[in-house]
Amino acid sequence: MMLLFIMAVQLLALAVTPAISATDNRVFADPASTSNPFVYMLLILAFTSILLLAIKKKKDWIVGGFIQISIATSIYYLMVAFMTPWQALLPTAAVLLLLRYYPEWYVIDAFGIAVCAGISSLFGVSMTILPTLLLLIILAVYDALSVYKTRHMVSLAEGVIKIKAPLLFVVPKSRSYSFRKDHFSASAPAGESQTGNSQMGSNRAEKAGGKKGAFFLGLGDAIIPTILVISAYTSLPAGGYFGVNLPAIGAMLGTYFGFLLLMTTSRDRPQAGLPFLNFGVILGFLAGCALAGIRPF
Asked: Domain of 252?
């Protein structure tokens, strides 16, 4: 099911990219600059540090406020690709209210697919191939360190799940499951909650044992690989067979391969998702370039 979410994100991102490309909205002024991934990384570190400090101080309202601002900005920039700035305020407000007062799993999942597609497309059109590859490599290393070494991403994941922030995909393990009514233990061991088996993280997937509840997948695990898919789609010419952009197709297939590899890892401890997903998407991208006879650099 989670693989279907990633596939849906990538297909929707490809669908909305022409509209987003037609706007002047870009994350970076120079898409080809190799400093872009380092700027992105600094923003992630700053954002993560603030959230971790707020969680440690039990200031859930600060965590919620930062997340709400991030969500509103993401929705707004997706909407302005299809309507005027003033018109975009209405659906942005509507989504925020829905997530605030009815954060059921299917609402969060629908939101997750849409916002992941929009963010992936926006970043994908804002960076060419080289800075995108650098970003994926940096984030894969950071994800592994933050899960296996410092474990601060595990702490962040627990805090985000506890306040039911819409930063994840939720797959119920039973039809009766309700994300709104579920209660999470703040004292659960790292990687565990009362919901049971989970996959969660801003940039990684996490797994833990359990018999009831739901599976979780962090939105970052869908966004980051898709950035390369969109970058390949917009930066490289379509070629090969039937005018298909083989590097982009290869990147998509590589993402799915990386996800399947992730699913073979141990369920007894949290697992970093991006080393698997980013390895897969980069490998698939390079294979697509080779098949199309394209030199990406």
From this structure: 2-292
